[in-house]
Amino acid sequence: MSEPEAPQDAPMQAAPNRSGQPDPRLQARRGRNIALALGLIAFAVLVFLVTVVRLGANVLDRPL
Amino acid sequence: MATMTSAITTTSDTPARWQDYLQLLKPRVMSLVVFTGATGLVCAKAPIHPLIGAVAVLCIAVGAGASGALNMWYDADIDAKMRRTRGRPVPAGRIQGAEALSMGVILSMLSVMFMGVAVNWLAAGLLAFTIFFYAVVYTMWLKRWTAQNIVIGGLAGALPPVIGWAAAAGEVPLNAWLLCAIIFMWTPAHFWALALYSSEDYEKAGVPMMPVVAGPASTRRQIFIYSLLFVPICLVPAFTGLGGLPYLAVAGAGGLVFLILAWRVMRSRAGDSADPRLDGRLYDVRAGARDARNLFAFSILYLTLIFATLLVEAVLGLPTFLNLIPGGL
User: Which of B135, B211, B253, B295 is in Cβ range 3.0-4.6 Å of B219 for a Cys bridge?
Assistant: First the structure.
């Protein structure tokens, strides 16, 4: 079994093209990834805060 | 469907940026929905934790955005034919239609479930109905079928204050539906005023907007009739214990201006003929259609003002108009 090859058009780093400018596709992907990460983190924090607010002091009312 | 498929499979050399995905959510529409939803939430005057209130407004916003993404997925074919919409991410080929569909479905489910778990299930149910009404009833059915599309479809845009009220109070009394009725009756005059000076676009795309189907003269007449029905409804909250004296003054004075502008539209030649000197940018006005543009612009200002007044009155705890009358009505 051989290892799967990395897609030719999806390098891991934003390598500069021949003119020395960063590849716009990779820049766009980086922006999308950052936006998605921030959205997920915000969602996780929001779920935590809502849980605290909804449960309030009852969060301690359980067998330890 | 064939034309839609061809439109949404067009790809662009420009890579999709995160801003394109944001554009799928129609942020300008979302901001109006957030505003009216927050007004409903505050006007309920019910005890609600600020964070839960903020989550409710966020869910309304995300739900509205999801509806927008579903709309952009389904309407990519007609969006591509209209100047106003052909730069949107799907018809421009920056985002695939399937991506817009996925985003719309996922965000719809997320917003409804989170509203249910974090706030209450009445608000979640109303939000689910609103998304369904906009994406399926309006976008997939009414929009391409009848000239009454934006009249009936306007219900989707009118429901956010009801959802906000339900989120805060867990019930939807008459005053909540009154806010809904105000937006519902505002919609025809607002959209038909816009359609009067961009009807060529709708005609080209095959969308049966009123000026295309019934003609400009009939549309101008209907705008005035709907305005006659709309303005009195705006005054009603002052007599149902919702609005105060400032609200009555704003709704009354603004309503008068609204009626004057609607009258001018009816007397104008708005929509009658295209001016070849203009290249059709969205807010350019055809010869004789300046009155329609004025009504369109003022309709936005008027709706914003009356909701802002209700919001400020509720936040400041000002007495309602009924409380100021000795002995009540």
Answer: B211
pLDDT digit string, tens, across residues B60-91 = 999 999 999 999 999 999 999 998 899 999 99
A30 close to B (CB below 8 A): no
Q: Give the confidence band of B273 by pLDDT, cuts at 50, 70, 90.
A: low
Beta bridge partners of A22: A16
Are the Cβ atoms of A28 and B15 closer than 8 angstroms? yes
- B52 CB neighbours in chain A (<8 A) are 50, 53-54
**What was the ipTM of the complex prediction?**
0.79
Non-local (6+) Cβ contacts of B77 within 8 A are B3, B4, B6, B7, B8, B91
pLDDT of residue A2: 45
Nearest to B18 among A32, A49, A53 (CB): A32
Among the partner residues A24, A35, A54, nearest to B18 by beta-carbon distance: A35
Cβ–Cβ under 8 Å, residues B169 and B236: no
> Which pLDDT value is given to residue B288?
60
Write phi, then psi, for A22 (nearest 5 degrees): -60, 145
The nearest alpha carbon in chain A to B19 belongs to A32
For chain B, say whether A25 makes contact (Cβ under 8 Å).
yes
Nearest-by-CA chain A residue for B18: A32
Q: Parse chain B into domains and list their residue ranges.
A: 1-172, 176-329
The listed CATH number (1.20.1530.20, 3.20.20.140, 1.10.357.140, 1.10.10.10) that belongs to domain B1-172: 1.10.357.140
Inspect the interface and report whether the beta carbons of B16 and A28 lie closer than 8 Å: yes
Written as six digits, the tokens of B115 are 């509203």
